[in-house]
Design brief:
alpha/beta, Spore Coat Polysaccharide Biosynthesis Protein SpsA, Chain A, eight-stranded mixed sheet, binds uridine-5'-diphosphate, binds magnesium ion
Length: 357
């Protein structure tokens, strides 16, 4: 049994430690809010009052995510205290996405919507959004809550430090195994072909200077190659590690054909980046090589015929020589036609907008 004096001592000790712990907690709280104060003051300096921010969000059947996304974006805008607009591009959604955005637009008229007549694909949706964006800095992000709006201030910082494009790098990814690994292969080849070393070309979260989005043509499934195209056009491109989240609602909108289409688009990038303005350089060179090889073969056979007195009509080499000459001429004329097309064509898809808010 403890006597009275010991009980009192125990009580005082417990009280003392409890107070100490409370003080520590209190101090921690005060410290965090001080830090927050400093943070928000710092954040306010990230974007100047003259700079406008546009956020372009392509979406296809993402009704569950839209309200949460717009609320988290609003928190970031409040911290940044900047002039902003959000452009949702409804890429022909069949669920209630447009109604959701309508509701959001009624609460805050800076959240707009471009509704496309049908599902054109993410690239076309981005392209439509880029056309309407008025901001000096443009952010793109997915609508499925996989990209984190809290990364926006850091991306703007990088842009304002002198870069034209900052591409997010989902270093820790929450995607299925197959997608993570095919993505690695895709990123490796795109880096090799485009000449810019990035870890994650296809991240939805990116920041651009206005000039980039007004210059880069995004069509087909080219959204995967925007950093490569921008780099090839001479823009200063870099990357920044960003947080990534698992998909909260719905399913991915890209099926298995994403791999095949991605591969074809890689070929397009490789071809168009080097030869779009001068197709004759590619086809012409091929044409000359083939025709010359064909010419040498037939010349050799002619010598055999006239000086060796051999019969050449039954030799397979004779056919090969003629084939090479024909293929060479074909290739050359293809180059000429391609050259004429390049001079007179533009690659914009016809995008029909139903309504704009
Ligand atoms: N998306 C789109 N049109 C499409 C397919 C997708 O606008 O035809 C949007 C989609 O709603 C999302 C973003 O593009 O906001 C990325 O799509 P998803 O999350 O399905 O791609 P993943 O994360 O699986 O690469
Ligand atoms: Mg996604």
């Amino acid at each position: 049994m403890l006597n009275r004096e010991e009980r009192n001592k125990n009580f005082k000790r417990r009280f003392f430690y409890k107070r100490k712990a409370q003080n520590r907690e209190g101090f921690k709280d005060r410290q965090t809010s001080d830090e927050l104060e400093v943070d928000s003051r710092e954040i306010r300096k990230i974007i100047s009052t003259e700079q406008m921010l546009s956020v372009v969000i392509p979406l296809y059947n993402e009704e569950e995510s839209l309200m949460e996304l717009s609320l988290s974006l609003k928190k970031v805008f409040d911290l940044l205290k900047c002039n902003y607009e959000v452009i949702f591009v409804d890429d022909g959604s069949k669920d209630g996405s447009f109604e959701k955005i309508n509701e959001i637009n009624k609460r805050n008229s800076r959240y707009h919507c471009i509704k496309l007549r049908r599902n054109y694909g993410k690239s076309a949706a981005l392209s439509a959004g880029f056309r309407e964006a008025k901001g000096d800095i443009v952010i793109t992000m997915d609508a499925d809550l996989q990209d984190d709006p809290n990364e926006i201030p850091e991306l703007i910082k990088v842009i304002n430090s002198g870069y034209d494009l900052v591409s997010g790098w989902k270093k820790v990814r929450y995607d299925p195994f197959i997608k993570r690994y095919t993505s690695k292969i895709f990123n490796y080849f795109t880096s090799k072909i485009s000449g810019i070393r990035l870890h994650d070309f296809n991240c939805g979260l990116k920041a651009y200077k206005k000039d980039v989005i007004k210059s880069v043509k995004v069509y087909g499934e080219m959204h995967r190659y925007i950093p490569a195209l921008a780099h090839m056009m001479g823009f200063k491109v870099t990357e920044k590690v960003v947080k990534h989240h698992p998909r909260k609602f719905g399913v991915t909108k890209f099926g298995a054909n994403r791999f095949l289409n991605g591969f074809f688009d890689l070929l397009t990038v490789a071809f168009t980046s080097k030869f779009i303005k001068k197709p004759l350089h590619l086809f012409g060179t091929m044409g000359i090589i083939f025709s010359f090889a064909g010419f040498l073969i037939t010349l050799y056979l002619t010598f055999l015929k006239f000086f060796g007195h051999e019969s050449i009509s039954n030799r397979p080499l004779f056919l090969v020589g003629i084939l090479f000459i024909i293929v060479g001429f074909q290739s050359f004329s293809l180059g000429l036609i391609a050259e004429m097309i390049t001079k007179s064509s533009h690659q914009d898809e016809d995008i029909f907008i139903e309504t704009t808010l």
